Amino acid sequence: MRFQKMDLRAATIAAALTASLGLAAAPADAKVEGDTITLGAAMSLTGKYSTNGIDTQNGYQLALDMINNAGGVTVGGKSYKMKIAYYDDESTPARGAQLAERLINQDGVKFMLGPYSSGLTKAIAPVTEKYKIPMIEAEGASRSLFTQGYRYMFAVLSTSELYLASAVALAAELAEKAGKKPSDVKVALAFENDPFSLDVRAGVVEDAAKFDMKIVIDDKLPRDLADMTSTLTKVRALKPDLLVISGHAKGAVTAGRQISELKLDVPMIAMTHCESAKITENFGAGPMEGILCPTQWSETLSYKDDLFGTAAEYDALFKKTYPSYKTVPYQAAQASAAVQVWKDAFERANSFDTEALRDAIADTDLATFYGQIKFSPAGNNIAKPMVLRQIQDGEYNVVAPTKWASSKVRHPRQPKY
Q1: Which of 194, 319, 217 is closest to 269 using CA atoms?
Q2: To the nearest whole number, what is the mean pLDDT of the chain?
Q3: How many CA atoms lie less than 13 Å away from 203 in the CB half-sphere?
Q4: What is the C-alpha to C-alpha distance for residues 377 and 407, in angstroms, rounded to an integer?
Q5: CATH architecture, domain 161-298+387-404
Q6: Which residue of 93, 214, 315, 343 shows the fewest CB atoms closer than 10 Å?
Q7: Which residues in 225-235 are b (16+ Cβ under 10 Å) and which e?
Q8: Given this structure, which CATH class describes domain 5-159+301-374?
Q9: What is the mean predicted confidence (pLDDT) over 178-205?
C-alpha cells in the first residue's frame, strides 16, 4: 500500500489554510467533476471547538487519502477520487448554517460530512434536510438530534446519553464488591450548559436513578468553561464517591488543571474529552491517575477492516501521519469512519443520485476499524458500544464494560500530587 506521510500532512495544512481564509475549496457545481467527487464540510478550525475540529479534519483527511491511494471509489465501472471542500465555521452555529448553504447553493456540493459538536450539527442539519442532501456526521452525539425526524442525517457514533452511563454502572458494581449498596453512592455532577453535555448529564441522572444513588451536587457551568473552583470546593466539602464532568476539550483542560491545583481526592472521577484535552501531557500522569474517560473507540478493541486493518494499525498510522499526537482522540477515528461510510454508500448505490445514496446510507451495515456501523431509522448508529478507559500510569486502558476490558479498574483512584 502506497502511503506518503508528508503528502497527507501537506494536504491537510493546505486545506486548513484555505478554510481559514474563507475561500471555497471546490469550484462551482462541484457535485462530481471529471473523476473527482467533492464532499463538503464546515469545520471548527478556530474558536472554542478548534482542538476537536482539527482532530476531526485530520481524521477526515487521513481516510480520504487512504481511500484515494487504494484506488478511490468505483461507480458505474469508473474510478473516482474524493476531495473535501472545507470552510471554517469559527465554532459558531450561525456561521455553520451559513456555510452549509454556501457549500450546497454556491459550490454545488451534494454530499456532506458533519461539523464538530452537537451544537454545530443542530445548526447544519435543517439546511441539509431542506435541500435533501445526505450528511454523514461523526461528532454530533446529542440524542435530541435523532428525535427531529431527519431523513438525510446519519451519525457513525453512539449517542450522548451513553457516554458516562458505564461510569455509573461501574460505581454500582464497585460498591457491591466493597459490601455496600449502590444506593450508598453519592454523585457530584458538573456539566457545561450546552446541548451535548446536558444530554450526557441526562443519561447519568437516569442511570443514577436506577440505582437510587444520591446526587449531592448538580452544577450547570457556563459555556466558556474557564473556572470550576466553586464546584470543586463543594466537592471537597461534601466528599462524593463519584464526580462526573463534561465540557468538551476546554472543560477537560479546566477540570484537569484545577483538580491538580486543588489536589482533589475523590475515589472516582469520570470526565469526557480527556484525550483531546491531553490532560496527562498538560498536567502530569500523577495528578490525573485513575480518571475515567469515556470513549467511542480504542486501539485495543478487536475491530478491523480492509482499508486500515485493525484498530491498533489505525492508531499507529494516525500517529505516524500526525506525530504531535501521543493518544489518538476518538473524534479523529470516527471522522475517518464517516468517510468510509461515504465510499461504501457510493459503491453500493452505484450512483451519484442523492436519493439513491440516502437509501444506501440508511441500509449501511459496515465493519470498520472503528466498529460496526448500522443506522436506526432515526439515523444514529445502533451497532457500536461506548467503552470506558482509565488513566493508569499515564496510559489510557479500557476497564469497562468487562467484555472489552484490557485492564482491571483501579479503585479508589490514587493520584500523585
Answers
A1: 217
A2: 92
A3: 25
A4: 36
A5: 3-Layer(aba) Sandwich (3.40)
A6: 214
A7: beebeebbeeb
A8: alpha beta
A9: 94
